[in-house]
DNA sequence: AAATACGTACAATATTTATTTTATAAAGTT
DNA sequence: AACTTTATAAAATAAATATTGTACGTATTT
């Protein structure tokens, strides 16, 4: 007896777990990364032990290939790592750090990359402008002069912005942010 | 004379401007919002004066409908506002604050929304679990007992996380973050 | 009141992103 | 050496987002 009830309660728990994972996936999308990263992070965090691509595929119902793609992204973001398991020739993955660390890693990585691309373009554009100035030094119409000035001024303002982003990324990466936005100790469920 | 050169230099400048705007658009995508928000922000910032939907459509080559959609998003994110211009029956839009302010607004908004959704789900799941516990109090198999405990513990950990995100959003929203990650005064272009 | 200008809802299309399928290479086993 | 197993590249498909076009409502002008 109780068999049916037990089965149905297990289903309910399963459903709750799934909803939590899906919420995490959606969070990640909001944060600008692939939702499946959130899903896998949630699962790996929940299981608390390293998992193979096959296990992840089984758990999510997605293809193994997709698991491979996403785990690679997670490695690049430094929110997961491989764990060598002797005796098995599968690769095992586990997460690195907790939710907050993952959050910090993701934003750090994204912001740094954005700042870097911006800096790269800004350099290119600045030298282009210098070149234009040099080239047309003899007959510089009022209008063109002004236009170049304006763009340079805007580039400078923009540079201040992405340099600030870089600083912010550092503030996250170093964990300094946690000094000012501390983690509250989690309470036991009432 | 100089007419051809003048035309070509103008084209070059135009191209540079466009590249900067496109970079901004790409930044926004990275940040998890529609790239066109970055584009319009860049244009409005550059022009330094309020613009109508038609002007924006003209400038971007996109449809007026799209401009309307995106401006609405920007209003919701508090990075743009309408400006009433008497005599005209068009609506004029201008940006609110500089790049950094926009950055802060966007993340504040996104993080708050994510935290809110998480909190909502967590509440639902917690009461569901309580309900399950109550319902099956008589014949609680070892296994189910443990499964519920585990999920509750995970929910608690997750709650600590999204509460932290909320705090972080507050830290951004209040501008406190700027105390610790200050804006460097921008240098004049060399 | 008819005509025009404006913004946007709604449906349709295009583009991008996520995911799967098929194919292949490398390593391990028999 | 032939056969498996594992991961992933490359191509194909599906799903989600961004964008446009059409239609319509409201306000304004004539």
Task: Kindly list the characteristics that best describe this protein.
homodimer, 190 residues, mainly alpha, Arc Repressor Mutant, subunit A, three-stranded antiparallel β-sheet, 7 helices, elongated, DNA-binding, DNA-binding (chains A, B), WH_DNA-bd_sf (chains A, B), HTH-type transcriptional regulator (chains A, B), transcription (chains A, B)
Shape of chain A: elongated
> How many H/I helices of chain A?
7
Uncertain stretches of chain A? none
CATH-derived architecture of the largest domain in chain A: Orthogonal Bundle
**Percent helix among the residues of chain A?**
over 70%
Proportion of beta-strand residues of chain A:
5-15%
Strand order in space, largest sheet of chain A: 1-3-2
Q: Give the structural class of chain A.
A: mainly alpha
CATH superfamily of the largest domain in chain A: Winged helix-like DNA-binding domain superfamily/Winged helix DNA-binding domain
- Count interface residues per chain for the largest interface: A-B, 73 and 73 residues
CATH-defined topology of the largest domain in chain A: Arc Repressor Mutant, subunit A
Cα distance spanning the termini of chain A: 31 Å
Radius of gyration of chain A: 25 Å
Q: How confident is the prediction overall: mean pLDDT of chain A?
A: 92
From the structure provided, what is the oligomeric state, counting identical versus distinct chains? homodimer
Counting DSSP E segments of at least 2 residues, the number of strands of chain A comes to 3
CATH class bucket of the largest domain in chain A? Mainly Alpha
N-to-C order of helices and strands of chain A: HHEHHEEHHH
């Amino acid at each position: 007896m109780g068999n049916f009830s037990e089965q149905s309660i297990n289903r309910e728990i399963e459903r709750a777990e799934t909803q939590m994972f899906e919420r995490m996936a959606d969070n990640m999308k909001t944060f600008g990364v692939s939702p499946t990263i959130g899903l896998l992070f949630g699962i790996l965090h929940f299981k608390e032990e390293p998992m193979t691509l096959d296990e992840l595929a089984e758990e999510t119902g997605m293809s193994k290939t997709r698991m491979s793609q996403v785990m690679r992204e997670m490695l690049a973001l430094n929110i997961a790592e491989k764990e060598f398991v002797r005796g098995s020739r599968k690769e095992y993955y586990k997460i690195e750090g907790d939710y907050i660390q993952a959050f910090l890693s993701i934003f750090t990585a994204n912001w740094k990359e954005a700042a870097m691309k911006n800096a790269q373009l800004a350099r290119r554009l600045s030298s282009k402008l210098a070149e234009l100035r040099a080239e047309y030094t003899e007959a510089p119409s009022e209008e063109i002069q002004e236009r170049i000035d304006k763009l340079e001024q805007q580039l400078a303002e923009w540079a201040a912005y992405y340099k600030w982003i870089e600083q912010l990324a550092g503030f996250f990466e170093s964990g300094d942010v946690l000094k000012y936005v501390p983690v509250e100790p989690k309470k036991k469920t009432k």
